[in-house]
Amino acid sequence: MKLWVEVLDLVFPPKCPFCQSILEEPRAPLCQDCQRKLPWLTGRAGERRVDLTGGCISPLAYRDQVPEAVRRLKFSRVRAYGGPFGALVAQCVRDRWSWMPEVITWAPLSRRRMRERGFDQAELIARAVGKELSLPVEPTLAKTRHTDPQAEQKEAAERRRNAMNAYQLRPGAQVAGKRLLLVDDVVTSGATLSECAQILLQAGAKEVRCATLAQARGD
Predict the structure, then answer these.
(1) Residue 108 DSSP class
(2) Cys-Cys with 48: which of 56, 81, 140, 200 at CB 3.0–4.6 Å?
């Protein structure tokens, strides 16, 4: 298996998800230049208050090269970006919290969006986080109605209305008494994460914390 991976790296050398330059170290999540230049969030800047949760952390601000990298994952279907994005989120969790979840889950897409895209980018990132942290990743939520993208909602109140009653507990999901890490690609106001957390807490989850690759504008 290792030999096959090395052959693939030679034929299709991994690229940095942010600048698309060929990586000198194929297993690295990004190139050294982007490591220096990306809009990293340090200290309190990397923390976002999200109602009903223990907060949301993110390694990056949603600006410079970050939005285009996220768009390539979502709309150009570059699924390979889920791995490096998840590695960055996992490192953020290690660096910022002594707390560790028991289960990792994600804020899911609607069925319509899944049909259009063919995959859920939050799930790809969540599964990569689980792999990095050696923790189970489980689908716990379902999106029951299609909503407009949160980034298109200009006001915080509009984002809350857009996310309200859009999710439900997935049949068979076992969350009672568990500490959960809820993963998404980008947090804006936190309305989606808060709505998802409410469902999980109502189902008996002990605690919900959130982590995303990037933070966009706040309230």
Answers:
(1) P
(2) 56
CA atoms within 13 A on the CB side of 10: 6
Tell me the backbone φ, ψ of residue 43, rounded to 5 degrees: 60, -140
Q: In terms of residues, how long is the chain?
A: 219
- Kindly report the pTM of this predicted structure: 0.89
- pLDDT computed for residue 165 by the predictor: 78
Q: What pLDDT, on the 0 to 100 scale, is given for residue 8?
A: 37
Q: Is residue 21 part of a domain?
A: no
Q: How far apart are CA 48 and CA 142, in angstroms?
A: 24
**Structural domain total, the chain:** 1
- Give the count of beta carbons closer than 10 Å to the beta carbon of residue 178: 20
> Kindly report the CA angle at 114 between 22 and 198, in degrees rounded to 5?
105
Domain enclosing residue 156, as ranges: 27-42+49-215
The per-residue pLDDT for 190 is 93
Residue 4's pLDDT is what?
A: 35
The reply to whether 34 falls in a domain is yes
DSSP secondary structure code for residue 203 in this structure: T
